[in-house]
Amino acid sequence: MIRNIIICLMCVLSLARCKIENDIPYPVLEGxxxxxxxxxxxxxxxxxxxxxxxxxxxxxxxxxxxxxxxxSKLRITKFVVSNDAEIVIDTALCNNPQKFPFxxxxxxxxxxxxxxxxxxxxxxxxxxxxxxxxxxxxxEVKQIIKRDIMLENQIGDAVIDEVTRNVxxxxxxxxxxxxxxxxxxxLGGQHGTVAPDPTAVETFDFSGPVKxxxxxxxxxxxxxxxVYVYHADGESAAASSVFPMTTKAMVSGKLQSGKQPVVEYxxxxxxxxxxxxxQDITVSGTSYTAAISKLSPATVYQYRVVVxxxxxxxxxxKTTEAIPLxxxxxxxxxxxxxxxxxxxxxxxxxxxxGNRGATTISExxxxxxxxxxxxxxxxxxxxxKYLLVKFAAGSMFAGSYxxxxxxxxxxxxxxxxxxxxxxxxxxYKYTPAVIDKVGETAFANxxxxxxxxxxxxxxxxxxxPREIRTSQSNRQLFDKNDPHIIxxxxxxxGDAMSSYEQKDLTLEYRSFDRTPKYIVVVATSSKYGxxxxxxxxxxxxxxxxxxxxx
Length: 550
Fold this sequence. Notes:
Elements: H1 2-17, E1 33-38, E2 41-42, E3 53-55, E4 60-65, E5 74-81, E6 86-89, E7 118-119, E8 125-130, E9 134-143, E10 149-151, E11 159-161, E12 166-171, E13 182-185, E14 193-195, E15 210-215, E16 223-231, E17 241-244, E18 249-254, E19 262-267, E20 274-275, E21 281-284, E22 287-292, E23 300-307, E24 310-318, E25 334-336, E26 339-341, E27 351-353, H2 355-358, E28 366-369, E29 379-383, E30 385-387, E31 390-392, E32 395-405, E33 408-413, E34 415-416, E35 423-431, E36 453-460, E37 466-469, E38 485-493, E39 501-506, E40 508-509, E41 518-524, E42 539-548
Parallel strand pairs: 4-9, 12-16
Antiparallel strand pairs: 1-5, 2-4, 3-4, 5-7, 6-8, 8-9, 10-13, 11-12, 14-15, 15-16, 17-18, 18-22, 19-20, 19-23, 21-22, 23-24, 25-26, 27-32, 28-29, 29-42, 30-31, 32-33, 32-41, 33-37, 34-41, 35-39, 35-42, 36-38, 36-41, 38-40
């Protein structure tokens, strides 16, 4: 009996000394914001209908709102997250913490009526998306309040101080201060109110400081603003500025309302001036912009602005160099095992492919070919294949293949570039297959239809190349609506071609005051290859890509 008790005690003590460990790791499910929208959303210019700028690599969301909404009580209308992540937010910023949803939603219509998604976005808001791990995101909202003022014979823009709520405006010396016609006076933004309203009368007396009661659209209270109008010192135009490109230059400046500038230019050593056509000069209120075209790259020019027969501004500028597209012939390749690389073995890579991901399970699907557009050298052959476990489109891009995560590639889009081409000239031949592989249910309707190739070029002012991820749970793709894109052009084609064709992709510039930092050129044999959707056997041949400067 005693022996049995001793044996039991020893077993208990032995068990007490045992350490039970849980060595099973938690799965990694990233918490990402896939879509985010709020009331009053707009772009940086105040135009509506623009998506948020979501960076999965930085875990940031940036967006703009117009002057119809209260930034301190801004209603979120869409908040889509990955992997059903829990949303953790500072409850002090929520209008009603008990009614704020803890999970994502595609629209407020699918939420209970009592849901309150209003959050204080007067400063950047930190949000945690919680799966098995925590992922910190930062959401920044900027409000665009366009305070437009335009008086008769106004010179330059009104100087608006939003801290002191003072406004200073200059008009021409001949304009009587006690009888000024006001065409626009939106001190409260496009949707606010101003009392008294100086546009409601024929002329308004600005001979002394005038106080106005100004209210924003979302407020019932008004604030006092003071407006001062002075005579200018006789100048009809302020100093101009010039933004030189490669074959073009944009001259801009201020002038007296109602005036029309004449802009002239010439080579630094030329004797005669050339006048910019009137249709190439845009005047808006007290601002003007003139487009000088058909210039030579890397050349010094002079310009001058003439108003009422007098030169009011002048200067010099130098156009940028016409940088060629590196390795656009696709003649240089080398092979390492199963991996084909589109650059000389002793050279520097400008282009890369998705081959490194493909060769982890099969052969390269972007390879050199002797079927060229002119019968000499080599071209690139991009073919869509099913590689044991998934569909893979043939691809070629300016950038580099970074790594493979699982069976998904992580790419770097963009090569350093600082010029302003007008076109990307391509030679290509496409043979589509019927779409027989659909990677996601959202593309199920494409099955049985003809595949399409996709070629695009973009100039961007990103601070660094853009990381591209194709994994569905952590997807980050190129967005042609990215506000950092300065110029863009694309080609999409889905019919069979019997021979090579040459096509110019004309770049549409969205901004004429920013210099590119990177160029992105991408081609794929299946347009929806990023979603593992396309036709096995679709083939795209590429040859002799060239940047055109006109």
